[in-house]
Amino acid sequence: xxxxxxxxxxxxxxxxxxxxxxxxxxxxxxxxxxxxxxxxxxxxxxxxxxxxxxxxxxxxxxxxxxxxxxxxxxxxxxxxxxxxxxxxxxxxxxxxxxxxxxxxxxxxxxxxxxxxxxxxxxxxxxxxxxxxxxxxxxxxxxxxxxxxxxxxxxxxxxxxxxxxxxxxxxxxxxxxxxxxxxxxxxxxxxxxxxxxxxxxxxxxxxxxxxxxxxxxxxxxxxxxxxxxxxxxxxxxxxxxxxxxxxxxxxxxxxxxxxxxxxxxxxxxxxxxxxxxxxxxxxxxxxxxxxxxxxxxxxxxxxxxxxxxxxxxxxxxxxxxxxxxxxxxxxxxxxxxxxxxxxxxxxxxxxxxxxxxxxxxxxxxxxxxxxxxxxxxxxxxx
Length: 381
Description:
The chain contains 14 helices and 15 strands. The chain has 381 residues and is an alpha/beta fold. Helix 9 (248-258) runs parallel beside helix 13 (333-344).
């Protein structure tokens, strides 16, 4: 299946080159960090033990960025902070001195959150929050993450080698691990525990071709989408279509593919470990099946017979299953697959958002929690 025409690819590369030249003109690229890591959250105990999960993740990450001398910035986007609790930046423990990682906190106020439909049903618009951090990032490469990840030393060492390429998008397997890892205090103890207590490995499923799509690693890819910053800007970030975001990572993967970016899967022992918690997204999802399919699931109809009828029904009328999260409509799996096919066949644009993506143009309050030595050096100059 063709990714896109030669003329389309040429246009994409010209756009990337123009954006890069523009950044070179307005900024001294030597003063940009190599890597920006963007995480969105709020101080509301979502998922349980939120502060501890965040502290373990950030402490381990900052330690590795220092250990492997990665000039970087950690951007924490605090979305719709609760009025009765302090900001995360004020309750998390930050290292006193950092040589290699600057820590920035961007606050998105409740007034902005209330603009979105269904904002009364969920306290975060995760996609817009992450996009807001990406929009304001400075790194040559940008890696969105979540608050409860641990990165293997082998992965961080490899990033430190600075072998990342501007026309490649990097993926890595996510290993879900037992939450008891939070009982340990040192990163070595935590990583050793993770290796021995894996619940599930979210590896490459190779199911794209089964649905008429390229074979991309879209399993749990939202936790590791490492790509050249200018491609985030060309693609306008993750799809901001609905507040209960679903499949935004998979859509971005196929959009990047059509834009000419090669997917590179980093294999073991390069991994990310996701700390298990309550109220997982998969537990919040509810499938709403058409009335006809619901009737076929009645207990007096044998399973093989109902399954066969459903299969024929879907071939005729298509899969009409819808998805809700907290009673908020969101993108269903059938709709996701249809969108992906439209993207790769050129039936629709691979850019979902307009120029205002990531709250572009909004003035957001920002705090610099720590300024790394590498940045202080350029500030003096």
